[in-house]
Amino acid sequence: MAEYSKVTEALLGRRRWLRQVSMASLGSLVPLGCQREAPAPTAESLELNEMRFPGKIPMRVINSRPPCLETPWRYFRSDFTPNEAFYVRWHLQMLPTEVDPRRWRLTVGGEVKQPLRLSLRELREFEPVTIAAVNQCSGNSRALADPRVPGAQWENGAMGNARWTGVPLETLLERAGIKAGAVEVTFRGLDRGGIQSVPDFVRSLKVELALDSDILVAYAMNGEPLPMLNGFPARLVVPGWYATWWIKSLSEITVVDKPFTGFWMDKAYRIPTTPNAVETPDNLATETVPISRMNVRSFFTFPDQGTVVTRHQPCSLEGFAFDGGSGIRLVELSADSGKTWQAAKLGTDHGNYSFRRWHHDWTPTPGRHVLLVRATSNKGEQQPLEPGWNHAGYMRNVVEQLALTVS
Ligand SMILES: Nc1nc2c(c(=O)[nH]1)N[C@H]1C(S)=C(S)[C@@H](COP(=O)(O)O)O[C@H]1N2
Ligand SMILES: [Mo]
């Protein structure tokens, strides 16, 4: 499925293509015991709330102006999320809809000895680095918050995993030469608020953090140019950190000698300092910090919710896990509400910032079952059995459930 292409989709027709995709990705793994209750969805036409944006398959629209589009769940059956199905999130009305790659320039300025003004071609002349990393919106799964919270009502599809190729930010900053006394580096894209009351989407990193060698200025995603809606021609990739840092259509990197202040740092994208950023509606946290590293999560991708499974035959359960960069140590399943857990087998390791697939053969007895999946990261962090809550709906990572009927 990583080899998925638009051409394939057009040739096969969507319906057949979907069938091929599930057959190709699950292949011989589909066991006799896991039957599908209903045939796979036949989305010849747009489903409710779906729209087709440039460079994208039909996707569920969370907001249309500016576009916020959610990745359909079936795409999480592969380790890498196809560019065409990768979720999209913009904040400002005036976003770039076309960029001439011959005229686009990335500037590195401010408190530097040698300001840079790089073309896309010059950026590509640096030694390229590729890293597999999850891009997840801070508000992924917000729609599931209880009590409800305002903001884009994402279900679980505001995330994706891709191979990002580009130049380490550190290389660019070293080429420019950071002056003594510099404290932060700010990042700005081509999008604009348009009116004075809407501040531009600018974010800043402390100099020490900006020099982390894993941060990239990426111009390719899964081996192709970035889709326009995912930040063509280049974006920041901050592996392990929530996507709010991953500035798209990047145009200005500015080194500053005073801490940067701005709406998107001081007011938005902040979390309580409490463990796992938890607060309660009647006792909101008074102390907040900018959101940064992702917490650990895991999901089911097969079979689908509500599938009818045959008794006493092995059913191969499948899903994936990830965290904020320490990597996945363990994925466990429970069929008894968390009393006992069994370790799943982990799939290919694409690096600590990537999705990590898991699978587990389960031989069920008749009845209705609710399975739980729980991941533990290499740094020992484990998903909670109860969801945490905060006023912005950030960082949800409760243990996920899969309800199945065994007949
Ligand atoms: N220039 C710019 N970059 C941006 C944003 C934005 O509004 N403008 N939104 C950020 C947020 S909050 C998210 S979740 C990610 C979404 O990345 P994607 O659209 O490629 O999935 O982009 C980030 N980078
Ligand atoms: Mo986001």
From TrEMBL:
GO terms for molecular function: heme binding; molybdenum ion binding; molybdopterin cofactor binding; sulfite oxidase activity. It comes from the Bacteria. Its cofactor is Mo-molybdopterin. The keyword Metal-binding applies. GO terms for biological process: sulfur compound metabolic process. Residues 96-264 form the Oxidoreductase molybdopterin-binding domain. Transmembrane segments: none annotated. Pfam families: Mo-co_dimer (PF03404), Oxidored_molyb (PF00174). Residues 291-398 form the Moybdenum cofactor oxidoreductase dimerisation domain. The keyword Metal-binding applies. Keywords: Metal-binding, Molybdenum, Oxidoreductase. PANTHER family: SULFITE OXIDASE, MITOCHONDRIAL, SULFITE REDUCTASE. This is TMAO/DMSO reductase.
